[in-house]
Amino acid sequence: MAIVLDAMGSDDRPEPEVQAAVDASNQLNEEILLVGDENDLQKRLSHIPGNHDKVWLVHAPQALDMSDHIMEARAKKQNSMRVGMDLVKSGQGDAFVTAGNTGMAMYYAKKTFGDIKGVIRPCLCALFPVSNGHAVVLDIGANAECRPEFLVQFALMGKIYAQTMLGIDNPRVGLLSNGEEEGKGNNLVRETYPLLENAGLNFIGNVEGKELFGGQADVVVTDGFTGNVMLKSTEAVAKLIIDILKEELTASFQIKIGALLAKPAFGKLRKMLDPAEIGAAPLLGIDAPVFVGHGRSDARAIVSAIKAAKQSVDHQLLEALRHAISQNIQD
What we know:
Largest sheet: 11 strands, mixed
Number of helices: 13
CATH class of the largest domain: Alpha Beta
Low-confidence stretches: none
Number of strands: 11
CATH topology of the largest domain: Isopropylmalate Dehydrogenase
Distance between the termini: 35 Å
């Protein structure tokens, strides 16, 4: 297996990507194709200890910026995102990982691979920490404006993701709303509700934030605008909790002693709330494994993203999605 990593995606590019390529190749014993300015990457790679035998450099002289739109991107014909996706398209890589511009990742993924046959609109899928593990939430930013039929298909793809990647046989599907009762929510939610009831899914109805984080749903669907706001708010609150705990637990000698005794519990909490443990979100519906991480990703987060991409290939997620969409069309 070879995972293609965009070396020019993160805010601190390419330092986190180069370190992550070395770390991931050693931890997973898999080849990493690192795409960016070859001379620059080679210099940086030479300063990183560890085995580099499975890190291969692929030259891409240009890089996309977070502020780039379609016109700017098209002018950069040899950017690292486009070159990297072409490697997967040609069969030289099995999955693509970037911490770059989400909009551009969607644009190039559709342009390079196209959608799975029958997909109306691809979406970004995230794992949210909940009381009993993780819940699949989608869309989290690929589609700010959605129609009811989009959300129904998001629910189907989320179900397949939960079954394939989390091992949940019959995932409970919820519709994010501001109230549990049928009839609550905006027009999109109210119009989507009856469609989900008749979609052949294990639909449990509307869910609020408390049901989501209480672990009462395995898959929660919403539009990309709401999902993205919720994702970023959740990450901000998680960081606030960790920062306050860290400050309070070092306030005095007595508290430090107590904190030392509780260190395993705090470590577990930190790991559960840390976005770097997940690393990246897959673009479900694209006809190739494409994973998009935060621009602020560090090397640890990018290693997690690479692991997620590898897991999706190992578990044949793309094949499962193709089959499910095909069956849904026939039905």
